[in-house]
Amino acid sequence: MRPPLAPAAGRRQFCARLAGLAGLAAAGALAGDALAQAPVRVIRISARRFVFTPGTVRLKLGEPVQLELTTEDVPMGFSVPDFKVRQDIVPGTTQTLRLQPDKAGEFVFLCDVFCGSGHETMNGSLVVEA
């Protein structure tokens, strides 16, 4: 049978354990913040009647990216159906779209807002490398 701890010693051990747990929780929170704020690669894509520049965008599998979309002339759309993402693009503004590809391959991105004769061929290629 263990002898009972003196009341003061019990409180000290309890406080020391509590402080240790609080330290671990704080360290975990900081690590989580560091991951949440990891730099995201920014890729600028401009659209003008019937061309995206660049026409081919290369990504790595699982790499989070932020697409910055602009148009010079008329309202456009940017859509990547295979990743179920899309964004309207309004002249004079920059629209952002976050994407983290979860599959490798070559995928089409396209304008999904009718922008004139030639709209149907306005597309580009998203190449995701494993």
From TrEMBL:
Main location: periplasm
UniProt-listed SUPFAM superfamilies: Cupredoxins
Signal peptide limits: 1-31
Domain of life from the UniProt record: Bacteria
Catalytic reactions of this protein: N2 + 2 Fe(III)-[cytochrome c] + H2O = nitrous oxide + 2 Fe(II)-[cytochrome c] + 2 H(+)
InterPro entries for the chain: CcO_II-like_C (IPR002429), Cupredoxin (IPR008972), EfeO_Cupredoxin (IPR028096), NosZ/Cyto_c_oxidase_sub2 (IPR051403), TAT_signal (IPR006311)
Subcellular location: Periplasm
Gene3D superfamilies attached to this UniProt entry: Cupredoxins - blue copper proteins
Pfam families listed in its UniProt record: Cupredoxin_1
Keyword Nucleotide-binding belongs to the record: no
Cellular component annotations (GO), alphabetically ordered: membrane; periplasmic space
Pathway participation: Nitrogen metabolism; nitrate reduction (denitrification); dinitrogen from nitrate: step 4/4
GO molecular function, one term: nitrous-oxide reductase activity
Keyword terms: Copper, Metal-binding, Signal
The protein's required cofactors: Ca(2+)
EC number of this enzyme: 1.7.2.4
Domain Cytochrome oxidase subunit II copper A binding, first and last residues per copy: 38-130
Function: Nitrous-oxide reductase is part of a bacterial respiratory system which is activated under anaerobic conditions in the presence of nitrate or nitrous oxide.
Protein name in UniProt: Nitrous-oxide reductase
Organism annotation: Variovorax terrae
